[in-house]
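User: Predict the complex with iron/sulfur cluster.
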Amino acid sequence: MKKAHWEKNLVELIRRTSTDLPADVENVIRRALGREKKDSTAHNFLSMMLKNAAMARRESVPLCQDTGTLSFRFTVPTGFDTNGLASLTRSAVAKATRLGYLRQNTVDSVSGELYVTNVAPAAPLMTFLQGARKTVDARLIMKGGGCENVGQQYSLPDVTLGASRDLEGVRRCVLDAVWKAQGRGCAPGVLGVCIGGDRATGYAHAKEQFLRKLGDRSEVKVLARLEDRLTRDIRKMEIGPMGLGGKTSSLGVKVGTLSRLPASFFVSVSYMCWAFRRRGVLLGPEGGVHRWVY
Ligand code: SF4
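Assistant: Here is the predicted structure with iron/sulfur cluster placed in the model:
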């Protein structure tokens, strides 16, 4: 493992994620802009988001002041040194913070004291999976606190929503989560949904949906139909960018499932704001870049 290559390219992964909005997200915002009335509040906000994104990219500055929680997901070949990779990732986060790609944004939960390098217990978050490829697939998502705060979890049946343990019940939960998020979480956002699992795995799987490209559809037909229906329903809510009205209340809905116990039926909804920071890279055994992802 060539430490210098690994650290350099992990810092570059962080820089791209923090400062360069992925093309699929930018395209969806651009299409939404075309649907809004010129000079409306919605049009102005979407246009400002695109200008912000262009400036962040041009000047290599964070897209949002809240650099968010950094979640890395590594898929590594058999026998790969994951402890070494974890340690290099922590140094890369500290370096990216020193270089200004990440704002100092991590505090002790009790004392409120700042971790100046953004390296702390469970920060950054790292997940390691084993894959069949010889390269390391490194993905990074940065998720801000404002949108994290509006995530919701439901245990069905829910009498207040009239939500039973079926897909119609799931639909009601997602619409409720969007309704409750209005005015917070920096809309238009993307909804990551998990049907099933337990309380912890449900939220984790809901967030996994953010690794999917915005233009894709679920390979499971019934879920693809649910995603389409939710997209249409949310549009009709006219919550609009920043909750100030308009046709664009969401940039997409992604639904996944996990198995569950007969006694539980959780629906977990994670909300990702318009500043949807997600990037990836395939790295060779010496840390060289094979290909950037997204
Ligand atoms: S919710 Fe997103 S856009 Fe809003 S402040 Fe947080 S990271 Fe920034």
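The chain is about 40% helix and 20% strand.
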